[in-house]
Amino acid sequence: MQPTIEAMAEGDVEAVARLRLAAFFEGSGRTLAEDITALRGLIAGDGFEAAFVAGFGGSPIGSCLFVRNEIDPAHDLTPWLAGLVVDERYRGRGVGAALLRAVEAHAASVGVSKLYLYTWQARRFYEALGWTAVEAFEQDGEPMLLMARSL
Q1: φ, ψ for residue 44, nearest 5 deg
Q2: How many CA atoms lie within 13 A of 74 on its CB side?
């Protein structure tokens, strides 16, 4: 059975926030309530920004965002593919690629011709899906890579 990829709904928010906290914000001080609030704001927005969720058996197993702004003040570029996360139990099955393609399709549908992302671990994953490394740099003392893809 393949996972479904859909726009994030209110019922997905808490489970996705838990995935995001474990993947991106452990030890950062960001709380579950803060991430829930941020995700709710995103899905209630103006329709340009978007959040997608991968579901399997009725439960969220991954998510990816399309946002105007990402890490500040690293680069003055827009828009961004951000927060791609897949539950460890479902990795290696194409879920991340499906989420990425959903964001790319949404971006193209709202007139975006170039999309950016930051990664520090998944360069090969993104390169295999057509993304190009633009610049390596440090953010808060940690290695980061800016990548881009023309749509």
Answers
A1: -95, 10
A2: 22
Q: Could you tell me which residues come within 8 angstroms of residue 6 by beta carbon, excluding any fewer than 6 positions away?
A: 52, 53, 55
**How many Å apart are CA 72 and CA 1, to the nearest integer?**
39
CA–CA separation, 65 and 50 (whole Å): 6
Distance (Å, whole) CA 2 – CA 52: 16
Per the listing, tokens 């726009």 go with 7
**Helix, strand, coil percent values for the chain (each to nearest 5):** 35, 35, 30
Return d(Cα 47, Cα 29) in angstroms, integer: 29
Q: What is the pLDDT of residues 51-110, one digit of tens each?
A: 999 999 889 999 999 999 987 666 789 999 999 999 999 999 999 999 999 999 999 999
